[in-house]
Design goal:
CATH topology of the largest domain in chain A: TIM Barrel
Helix content of chain B: 10-25%
CATH topology of chain B: Alpha-Beta Plaits
Largest interface: A-B, 35 and 30 residues
Radius of gyration of chain B: 14 Å
Distance between the termini of chain A: 27 Å
Strand order of the largest sheet of chain B: 1-4
CATH class of chain B: Alpha Beta
Largest sheet of chain A: 7 strands, mixed
Number of domains of chain B: 1
Shape of chain B: globular
CATH class of the largest domain in chain A: Alpha Beta
Number of strands of chain B: 4
Helix content of chain A: 25-40%
Structural class of chain A: alpha/beta
Distance between the termini of chain B: 47 Å
Radius of gyration of chain A: 22 Å
Number of strands of chain A: 15
CATH architecture of chain B: 2-Layer Sandwich
Oligomer: heterodimer
């Protein structure tokens, strides 16, 4: 997941991020050669701008894993959860191809197919590469991606390049084997289970070797890192620098998910997750040297749809089993729909509105279901989109999940938990915009110094943010807000 | 002498992929080792391969019926911290 170059991140930020896309973030990919930029422009995971418009899907054909991570419980499978490694239905390659065609026909803006688990795709080489080989032949208009822990990457770098897999994500949590020993209890390597520092050393060596081999072969590589406070948080800036030097084009630092009820080592031993503000600060410091991905939604290994949504239930095996898809017809429709989206996106890169009054830099949050507009009820939001706003520009910082415990279960004190989760997620924000908000939450937000607004329902995000910012500034309500600097 | 798989198996296929004797197949509930085909990898590898990759504690028994990976041996989770389990051996949800 990461990459090459550049000074883009340290150049002055471009003003303006329009409702139809978040342009300033894509500027961080400006260092890519044109051909590569073209590759990522309709990839929802790599292009902040594309993720409002294009969809992705994962097929869960890879259940086996060859390492253990302390944030993973191989037993866990719950349809209320949305996070990597969790999946309900493991598919055979044949079923996976059938599902891809069904989704491609039903969701023509789906551009990207990934294999991400629920184990490690390269620990399931037969199932993974049979699926890729068939998709490369039968659905040639879909981009193929794979994510891996990297242990077997050197072995399969050639095969990845052969099937025209354009993007690979490697999860690299550390470069120091002593830190690795606190993240990975064991690996399966050379027909043996290897533990501790020695295991971490082999894993890290293979991850970096694999990264270099992919870059040599022209494959775009992004690096994912899980931020684990007290374990690798102070080390991730170095990871960012090194993977960039080795040719990764993007770095995605994700927050640890560690709830006791997930039954993971970290969850049960009380390892805490980073706060939203801690994550943002680390992402900001890595951004000095590396392009950072900020809009990751930590999708499930069987996710279907736009980032942040999951339409997997529409495409379960029983629903697609007897479905016959005319793929040529689907491909023609997909081409038309995707061309229209690209046209809109390209047209939307007009200049930003003229800067108005200057004010302090603050964080503002938005409740949105996608399409670049404010269209989610405050109480229903499972995540908020975060933006850094000053008088001149609106810069997207990615999504922040709301800590929900258990939805849909009658014995769960849902309402209370939900509201507290919302308030926690917004703690460092000056304002939150949503389609609608109840009186109770409104009062609690105001008591915390967070200005809520439902006045911009269904309006484009960036314009609404700038407008509300100016309004708050005019009312003298921004001075006392905890803004970016205050919380940094 | 054969190894065997218990109902703690999570059906991840890892053991089937690494078995040099093709002794492991998917059963109705979980994977199953054919006792006639299992050699414990004698002549192939130093350690039984299923036991070297299996990620779940208490899912594999040795020839004497003894668990190969007791609680804590793979995850490092101390038994005092293990989540309460339901009758299927799955962790119960702990409500806050």
């Amino acid at each position: 997941m990461e990459l090459i170059a550049t000074s883009a991140a340290t150049e002055p930020k471009k003003a303006g991020c329009h409702a139809s896309g978040c342009g300033s973030s894509d500027d961080s990919l400006a260092h890519l050669p044109d051909a590569l930029r073209e590759q990522v422009q309709n990839h929802p995971c790599f292009s902040e701008k594309a993720h409002h418009h294009f969809a992705r899907m994962h097929v869960a054909v890879a259940p086996a894993c060859n390492i253990q991570c302390n944030y993973c419980n191989r037993k866990y499978d719950c349809s209320n959860e949305s996070r990597p490694g969790v999946v309900s239905e493991v598919l055979s390659p044949d079923q996976a191809v059938r599902k891809v065609k069904a989704v491609a026909a039903a969701i023509p803006q789906m551009t990207v197919l990934g294999i991400a688990g629920p184990g490690d795709p390269l620990a399931n080489p037969e199932r993974t590469f049979t699926t890729f080989r068939r998709l490369a032949e039968e659905t040639p208009d879909i981009k193929l991606c794979v994510s891996t822990n990297g242990l077997r990457l050197p072995e399969f770098a050639d095969e990845i390049a052969r099937y025209n897999i354009q993007h690979v994500t490697i999860t690299i949590n550390c470069l120091d084997p002593d830190i690795g020993a606190r993240i990975y209890p064991w690996i399966y390597w050379n027909h043996r289970r290897i533990r501790g520092r020695k295991a971490a050393k082999i894993l890290i060596r293979n991850q970096l070797k694999g990264l270099e081999m992919l870059v040599e072969r022209g494959v775009l590589v992004k690096v994912n890192s899980v931020m684990i406070p007290g374990v690798n948080d102070a080390h991730l800036e170095e990871v960012s620098r090194v993977v960039k030097d080795k040719g990764a084009f993007l770095h995605n630092v994700m927050p640890l998910i560690a709830e006791a009820e997930h039954g993971t080592f970290y969850g049960l031993t009380g390892q805490r997750a980073p706060s939203g503000a801690e994550l943002r600060r680390l992402q900001d410091s890595c951004a000095d040297s590396m392009s950072m991905m900020r809009h990751c939604r930590q999708c499930r290994a069987d996710a279907v749809g736009m980032l942040g949504e999951d339409r997997g239930q529409e495409f379960t095996l029983d629903k697609i089993e007897h479905l016959e898809v005319d793929y040529s017809a689907a491909m023609e429709k997909r081409r038309r729909v995707q061309a229209a989206i690209m046209k809109t996106l390209n047209a939307a890169t007009d200049p930003a509105p003229a800067p108005q009054a200057n004010g302090p830099e603050v964080l503002m949050a938005v409740a949105s279901k996608g399409q670049g507009v404010i269209n989610e009820h405050f109480g229903h939001a499972r995540e908020f989109l975060l933006y850094r706003v000053d008088g001149n520009q609106v810069e997207p910082l990615g999504a922040r999940k709301v800590d929900l415990y258990c939805t849909g279960s009658s014995d769960c004190p849902e309402e209370e938990n939900r509201l507290q989760g919302h308030l926690d997620a917004l703690a460092d924000c000056a304002a939150v915009l949503c389609a609608k908000i109840g009186f109770g939450p409104w009062q609690q937000l105001e008591a915390l110094g967070i200005q809520p607004s439902g006045a911009y329902a269904y309006e484009p995000i960036e314009e609404a943010l700038m407008h509300f910012y100016q309004e708050l500034l005019g009312d003298g309500k921004l001075e006392s807000q905890r803004g970016v600097q205050a919380s940094a | 002498m054969p190894l065997s798989i218990t109902d703690r198996c999570v059906n991840c296929y890892a053991c089937q992929d690494v078995c040099p004797s093709q002794a492991i197949s998917r059963g109705a509930q979980q994977f199953h080792i054919d006792p006639a085909a299992c050699t414990e990898c004698a002549g192939h590898f130093a350690d039984p391969q299923c036991a070297s990759i299996c990620p779940v504690e208490e899912a594999l028994l040795d020839a004497d019926g003894k668990t190969i990976h007791p609680p804590g041996s793979l995850t490092g989770i101390p038994s005092t911290l293990r989540a309460p389990r339901n009758h299927q051996g799955d962790p119960l949800r702990v409500l806050p």
